[in-house]
Write a structure and sequence with these properties.
heterodimer, A: alpha+beta, SH3 type barrels, five-stranded antiparallel beta sheet, 3 helices, elongated, B: alpha/beta, Nitrile Hydratase, Chain A, 2 domains, two-stranded parallel sheet, two-stranded parallel ribbon, 11 helices, about 35% helix, globular
Chain lengths: ~120, ~240
C-alpha cells in the first residue's frame, strides 16, 4: 500500500469486464460458515468507517446464502483490497433485533449481508 | 427577489428541480467532483456523459424481467438464482454496459431478485445511504433516499408499508432487505389474480417502480406509482437565472 504514487485506477482496471464483486472471486480462501449456520454478530470497534449496522450487533441470525468474496467495506473504504473475505446473507427475526417488536408479527424477518469478520458461531 | 417557479417571460415553465434545497452532501459532491476534474481523474466531459447516461435509465427493464418471470418458469428460476444473467435478456448488462464497463462503487454488479410468495413479502431499503439497483431501475425516488424511510422501514416495516397503502395480514411474513453491502435487490412480486392470459407486455405495465422496491403490489389496472406527499422546503432555492 505504501507506493510513492498510489494508482487510483487500480480498481477500475481489475473490475473491467468482470464486475465488482466478481473480480475478487477465488481470493478469500475457504468460507468459514455455510447455509443454515446460526451466527452472532460481533461488536467490533469501528473507527472511521463501517457497514455493520448497530442494530445487528449482538443479535443472532441464520446464514441464508454465501454470496461473494470482496474486501470488507471497512478495508475497502481505505482502498485496502489486499485481503478479500466471504460475505454472507443473513436472516434475522425482527423480534431478535427489536425486543419490543409486536408478538403478533413474530414471523417478520430482515435480511442483510455482512463480511466474515463480523460473525461468530452462535 | 427571485421569481418562484412560474412562467418566465417567454411563457414556458422551467423544469422543477428534484429537490429545491441544496444539501450539504450535494455541495460536497460538487467540491469533490471539481477536485477530481482538476486532478485529471476524469474530465468534465466524462462527467457529463455519465450523468446523461444515468438519466436514460428507468424501471422498465426490471418490470419486463418480472413479467417474463411470471410467464416463463425456467426464466423465473434463472432470475432468482442469477439476477445479473437474467438481466441480459431484458437488455441490461450489469458488467459491460456503458459508460464505465465495470459498474461503479455505488452500482455493484450483484443483483438479487427476491421472490415473493403469498406468505412472504419482501421490501427493499438501504439503511446505510440509499443503494439502489440503478442499472435496472434507474434513479431512486426521493423518498427512498430520506433518513425517514431508511431508519423507519427496518424498525416499523408494517407501519411504513401502511403509509404506502399496503396493509398485510399477520400471517404474511414481511422480510426487509437492507442492501448496505454489494448486493442490489429488486422484488419479484406475486402475479395478481385477474391477469390470466395476459401477454408479457400487458403484465409489465402493472409492475411499477414501487412494486419493484416492494412498497406496493401489482394490481390489474394500476400502472402508476401512488402519489407521495411533497412538503415545501423550509429554505427554498430561488432560481433567478
Amino acid at each position: 500500500m505504501s507506493k510513492v504514487q498510489h494508482d487510483r485506477t487500480h480498481h477500475a482496471k481489475k473490475a473491467t469486464g468482470k464486475g465488482d464483486p466478481q473480480c475478487f472471486k477465488g481470493e478469500a480462501g475457504p468460507a468459514k460458515f455455510k447455509v443454515g449456520d446460526r451466527v452472532r454478530i460481533r461488536d467490533l470497534p469501528d473507527i472511521f468507517y463501517t457497514r455493520c449496522q448497530v442494530y445487528t450487533r449482538g443479535a443472532s441470525a441464520t446464514v441464508s446464502a454465501v454470496v461473494y468474496e470482496s474486501p470488507a467495506a471497512e478495508d475497502e473504504a481505505w482502498d485496502n483490497t489486499d485481503k478479500p473475505e466471504w460475505f454472507y446473507s443473513l436472516v434475522f427475526r425482527q423480534k431478535d433485533l427489536w425486543p419490543n417488536y409486536p408478538d403478533l408479527f413474530a414471523n417478520d424477518t430482515l435480511e442483510t449481508e455482512l463480511s466474515e469478520r463480523w460473525l461468530e458461531k452462535a | 427577489m427571485a421569481k418562484k417557479h412560474t412562467e418566465d417571460e417567454h411563457g414556458h415553465r422551467p423544469p422543477a428541480p428534484m429537490v429545491d434545497e441544496i444539501s450539504d452532501f450535494e455541495v460536497l459532491e460538487m467540491a469533490v467532483r471539481e477536485l477530481a476534474i482538476e486532478k485529471g481523474l476524469f474530465s468534465a466531459d466524462d462527467h457529463r456523459r455519465w450523468t446523461e447516461y444515468v438519466h436514460t435509465l428507468g424501471p422498465l427493464p426490471a418490470a419486463r424481467l418480472v413479467a417474463k418471470a411470471w410467464v416463463n418458469p425456467a426464466y423465473k428460476k434463472m432470475a432468482v438464482t442469477d439476477g445479473v444473467k437474467a438481466s441480459l435478456e431484458v437488455g441490461v448488462d450489469w458488467i459491460n454496459d456503458m459508460p464505465t464497463h465495470f459498474g461503479t462503487p455505488s452500482d455493484y454488479c450483484n443483483l438479487r431478485v427476491l421472490e415473493d410468495t403469498p406468505k412472504l413479502k419482501h421490501v427493499v431499503v438501504c439503511t446505510l445511504c440509499s443503494c439502489y439497483p440503478r442499472p435496472i431501475l434507474g434513479q431512486s425516488p426521493e423518498w427512498y433516499r430520506t433518513p425517514n424511510y431508511r431508519r423507519r422501514l427496518v424498525r416499523w416495516p408494517r407501519q411504513v408499508l401502511a403509509e404506502f397503502g399496503l396493509q398485510l395480514p399477520p400471517d404474511v411474513e414481511i422480510r426487509v432487505a437492507d442492501s448496505n453491502q454489494k448486493t442490489r435487490y429488486i422484488v419479484l412480486p406475486v402475479r395478481p389474480a385477474g391477469t390470466e392470459g395476459w401477454t408479457e407486455e400487458q403484465l409489465a405495465e402493472i409492475v411499477t417502480r414501487d412494486c419493484l422496491i416492494g412498497v406496493a403490489v401489482p394490481k390489474p389496472g394500476v400502472k402508476a406509482n401512488a402519489k407521495r406527499p411533497v412538503h415545501p422546503a423550509v429554505h427554498p432555492v430561488h432560481h433567478d437565472h
